[in-house]
Amino acid sequence: MSTAPVASAPVSTARPSRLTIWAGWTMILIAVAHTAVFARLAPWASWFAGDLRDRTADSDSVATFWALPGGFVVVLVLLGLLVARAGRQGQHVPAYVGWGLLAWGAAGVSLIGPSGFLSAAIPSALLIAAHITARRRSTRRH
């Protein structure tokens, strides 16, 4: 057993960023809703049997795979958790994260029409608004 001190993250005294926290939780909600819609359509048994590896899966099965574990769901949950944590610590993510999410959602809508991609506008707007608000506060202090 080691007696070396354990390094811990510095405690932030900054006020939590509610807009950033909500953006993170909205991303998580979108990923969970997406999973709830598509998980019942997934041919889980054939996937675990190896249909994706041996290329015997049909195109619907492959598309469903890319809509669930192979797609954005896991990454969006992880990004949402990271963003929410930053917000709780009073930090803000760069505005390009919000603009990037907005561009991704817009590209999805332009390719397949009105769909769940429209929901990307919510966390995008929250992140952009959080960045603008933080910038205004920092210019008032100086």
Automatic annotation (TrEMBL):
Q: Give TM regions.
A: 21-42, 62-84, 93-111, 117-134
Recorded hits in InterPro entries, A to Z, give:
DUF6463
On the tree of life, the source organism's domain of life is: Bacteria
| Pfam families in UniProt | DUF6463
Listed A to Z, the keywords are: Membrane, Transmembrane, Transmembrane helix
Task: Please indicate if the UniProt record lists S-adenosyl-L-methionine as a keyword.
Answer: no
Listed name of the protein: DUF6463 family protein
